[in-house]
Amino acid sequence: MASQKPDLQTTKKIFSQWNREKLVNYAASLSKAMGAERAKHKALTSQIESAKDWLQGLTLVEEIGQHLSSTLNLDEVLALLLKRVTEALNAEDGSILLTEEISGDLIFQISLGAISEEIKPFRIPKGEGIAGEVALTGVPIRVDNAQKDKRHFKQIDIDTGFLTQTILCVPLLTRQRVIGVIEVFNKRSGPFTDEDQVILSSIANFAAIAIENARLHQRVLAERDRVVLAQEETSRKLQRDLHDGPTQLVAAIQMNLDFAKQALKKDPSLVEKELDEIIGLAQKATHQMRTLLFELRPLVLETQGLAAALTTFLKRRQKDERTALHLTVNSDRPDNAIPRLISKSEMAIFAIVQEAVNNALKHAMAYNIYVSLDLKKDRLSVTILDDGQGFDLNAVSNNYEDRGSYGMINIKERAAVAGGNLAIKSAPGAGAEIQVNILLTPGLLVAERDEA
Hints:
By secondary structure, this protein is of the alpha+beta class. It has helices spanning about 10-70, 75-90, 130-135, 155-160, 195-245, 245-265, 270-295, 300-305, 305-320, 345-365, 395-400, 400-405, 405-420, 445-450; strands spanning about 90-100, 105-110, 125, 140-145, 165-175, 175-185, 325-330, 370-375, 380-385, 420-425, 430-440.
């Protein structure tokens, strides 16, 4: 029997059902694919924007690094750094605090914006507050609600009228050492982000190097000024010593020679006595000039060491003074020997004794001045003691610049150069004692250093 063809209505029904299923499945697949493509596009767009931000951040870091390297003035470095950072991170304000080397405390340096004129210099104890914690740990801190954070010093807000809301604080690191922190406050477009922290940390790395360079430059300038002052002080002292000593003696010799010349014509019997007096004056002038030359450069110190140099120095000074000068050397080494130190340490110790003895001879009105070198194991003590009228140590220390003399300052600086700790004791009517205690490390001992 011949097969019966489906009628048109049945065909439409079958086709429509099949088409509808296929179209639905195709539409679902297409929608899914389009969703995935949109997600990919969104991710790519986000990556592109993030890359742009990173590029801008890197450009900013490079730009700030170049600006910071253009000056060695510390104040200019800090002002430039803070200005560019607050602008770049869209922050209302910021501040920089640097670490004090001895205590580890943070010392406020600079601030910009609303609180710049209100805030006064202050210090933050090591490890306290947000900045102190960053300085102690070397780890950045980001705070989204400063008013609820117990570490935030709210008193500063009260004093300045500035409401701190958000904080980003990063360490200034150089050679694995924290030299300070940089903080920014209140980002205008919301809380600080991870990207802000990375950018600020990168800038801080450049900034730490620039700050260290500026500090080193300041120390070099200060050392230059100190050397100039020391040279001027030495020049003035030499001028005074020449005027008060050999110059007066030479003038007396000239007067006596004139008298001897007149006596030769009128009464020759007076000439011999006058010539004896002239010879005495000439010998005294020669001794004083040789003493000045010795004090300027004691060659015996270079060839024989401290004990010999101090012995020679005190013997030379004793000839011109009524005050009794004493030297004692006590050592636990064979032959009571004091080991040779590196040149700068020996020169510094000699200069300390020289300055202290000369000051005592000039001002103390002492009957005795005692100088001692005491060596026990690896510790050398140098002591200058007098039984004179003494002085008010605090008053002298506070007024030294006004007095126009740098004796005490020179002693302190030379004690540091010698590698020792300085102790000074004095009171009116009780004499004075100056002592320098030095730990003889291998780097200070000539023989041990040369062997190393």
